[in-house]
Amino acid sequence: MHDGQNLFDDQKAAYGASWRFMETMLDPKCPKMRVLGISNSESFEGRIDEYSPYVRRSFKGEGLSRPCGGKGDLYLSYVMNEVLPKYRSKYPTTKVYMGGSSLGGVITLIAALDYADQIDGAFGLSNSWWFVEKQLVRKIEHFKGVLPPFYLDTGTKESENPKTNLGYLKSQETILNALILKENNGIKAEVIQGAKHFETDWAIRLLEVLIWLIK
Question: What's the maximum distance between 2 C-alpha atoms anywhere in the chain?
Answer without folding.
Answer: 47
